[in-house]
Amino acid sequence: MEFKDYYQTLGVARDAPADAIKKAYRRLARKYHPDVSKEPDAGKRMAEINEANTVLSDPEKRAAYDQFGQQPPGQEFRPPPGWDANREFSEREFSGADAAGFSDFFSEIFGRSHGRGGAGGTHGTHGAFSDHHARIALDLEDSFTAPERQLSLQSPKVDDKGRVSLETRTLNVKIPKGIREGQIIRLAGQGHALDGGQAGDLLLEVQFRPHPRLRADGRDLHLTLPLAPWEAALGGAVPVELPGGAIEVRIPAGAQAGRQLRVRGKGLPSDPPGDLYIELRVLAAPATTPRAKELYEALAKETGFDARREAP
Questions:
Q1: Which residues lie across from 207 on neighbouring strands?
Q2: Which residues of the chain have pLDDT under 50?
Q3: What is the reported pLDDT for 155?
Q4: CATH architecture of 1-57
Q5: 158-211 confidence digits (pLDDT tens)
Q6: Which end of the chain is more exposed for a tag (fewer CB within 10 A), N or C?
Q7: Which fold has domain 214-310?
Q8: Edge-to-edge order in the sheet of strand 202-208
Q9: 299 SS3 class
Q10: pTM of the model
Q11: What single-letter DSSP state applies at residue 265?
Q12: Which fold has domain 83-113+126-210?
């Protein structure tokens, strides 16, 4: 995916105020609009100009875009993981016509945060209000402990000269026990007011930070459990550390690598609780001493095991 320099497309400085962006767009539109332009690439240029203006004329999108910094246009680009965490935005939906001809870059950056459809807007009879949204990153352990977290959220602010900056506010948020990735925590009245009306709600979409051993899938948890060869061959109880406390998992004798075990009720503490899925991984113990080599040689003779013949 190629990086798009929207400032270069409109021919404005990165700190250009809103009226300068509007003037640049109008000037370029008069030159490249397909209905009046005689330029051979007018259609393509106009699509690029519309895309750049869609981003830079909207304070939320512009603030999100600016965090990527200045990069050469056309350079291969991928947004870093979690780039949009803890950033507030209002819910605005793009129709197919609005984004027709826009680039993959635009869709990757703005297609997820704008266009999930219809949860925000203006409501109420005592003035307009706007729901705001933000993605927040939590530890998987938070689903078990239900802590209170202090979150710093950033939202774009436009000064009296039309320049965009980020404003930070801090909130104390109680995390519900059993919270799952993708669920919404609604904070009533913590959105933004419009035209002097009452404030809307703040909707926090939960994402889990990567865990070194566990992966959440809805209510369920998945992990890979390393076993020594004798644990797999002989079976027995193996301790497994989980955020809710250690458990013992019964390994059946003769377990093979790749086998999956299911432990009911040991996923996230939801209602009902999720399950724990364990994939077995057998690791060979290194023969680093003469005695270890002797034992491996004796095992080979005793069992006559041929891994290539026994493999499925």
A1: 137
A2: 93-97, 113-128
A3: 81
A4: Orthogonal Bundle (1.10)
A5: 777 777 778 888 999 999 999 999 999 999 988 766 555 677 889 999 999 999
A6: C
A7: HSP40/DNAj peptide-binding domain (2.60.260)
A8: 89-90, 132-138, 202-208, 184-187
A9: helix
A10: 0.74
A11: T
A12: HSP40/DNAj peptide-binding domain (2.60.260)
- Per 3-state DSSP, the chain is made up of helix, strand and coil in percentages (nearest 5) of 25, 25, 50
Tokens in use for 170? 């801090």
Q: Which residues pair with 280 in a beta bridge?
A: 225
H/E stretch holding 208 reads strand 202-208
Q: Give the model confidence (pLDDT) of 234-261 as tens digits.
A: 999 999 999 999 999 999 999 999 999 9
Per-residue pLDDT, 196: 56
Q: How many residues does the chain have?
A: 312
Same fold, 1-57 and 214-310: no
Residue with tokens 């910094």: 69
d(CA 178, CA 218) in angstroms, rounded, equals 10
Domain boundaries, the chain: 1-57, 83-113+126-210, 214-310
